[in-house]
Each structure stands twice: as structure tokens, then as C-alpha cells.
């Protein structure tokens, strides 16, 4: 059979590690959108009058999701910062001034890290 008449090769299947690396890249490509959800939740809380518990719950859920997903994907710096802010919110219906300051400082660090676009995902061998 002539070279030009050969059947095309089947696409090589991705290894488990390659699939995991692709998940990391996909998550990092959307991380700024995820942080925007956190920022919007914080803004809603900080501008609200009266009942603020629902805003804190929403903020907590977004931070919890970012901390957990980032941790699973080996994006440790993001995970640690999100977890730090999340821990301030646990069981809170409202924050005092000191707690608000800690959340603001942590979110500012997280924003800086994300906006720089130099987040590094740890290489993980899922077959190990």
C-alpha cells in the first residue's frame, strides 16, 4: 500500500496523568471567574444592611469549593489562601471588625496571586 493511501493512525489515548494535568489547566483557565464569584459574594456581604448570614454562607461555599478543588488539583497556594479565609467564616452569622480585616487581607492576597497569572500546579502522579 502506498504511503499516501495508509489509513490514518488512531489518536493516542491520554494517560491518566495527562488527563489530570489537563484538568489542572482547565481549572486554572477559569480560576479568575471563580474568584469573581468570591469577590461578588464579599461585596454583597459588605454592602448589605441587616440580615447578612446568607451572604456569608454563599461566600463560605465559594471559598470552600475553591480551597477543596485547588487542593485536590495540587494548586496549593490558592488552596491555602482560600482555606484561610474559609476558616474565618466557619459557624459565623456575622463578622466582627478583626475577622472582616482578616478576610479582606486574605482575599487581597488571593486576588494578587490570581491576577498575576503565575499560579503553579504541583505535578501529581496519580498512578503512584
Automatic annotation (TrEMBL):
This is Hpt domain-containing protein. Keywords: Phosphoprotein, Two-component regulatory system. The modification Phosphohistidine is found at residue 64. Transmembrane segments: none annotated. InterPro entries: HPT_dom_sf, Sig_transdc_His_kin_Hpt_dom. The keyword Kinase does not apply. Residues 24-124 form the HPt domain. GO terms for biological process: phosphorelay signal transduction system. The lineage of its organism: Bacteria, Pseudomonadati, Pseudomonadota, Gammaproteobacteria, Cellvibrionales. GO terms for molecular function: protein kinase activity. The keyword Signal does not apply.
